[in-house]
Amino acid sequence: MSLATFLLLTAVHTQWNERLYRQVLASTRNLEYFDNSYTGMVSNHSSPMPTHYLSRFLHLGHSHIKGLHLIMRYFDTKFFMNVNRMDLLEELAIHYKVEGPGYGPEPNRPVSASFPNLQYLAVTAPYDRAPLEVIHHWRLDNITHFICRNSRIDFT
Question: From what superkingdom does this record's organism come (predicted)?
Answer without folding.
Answer: Eukaryota
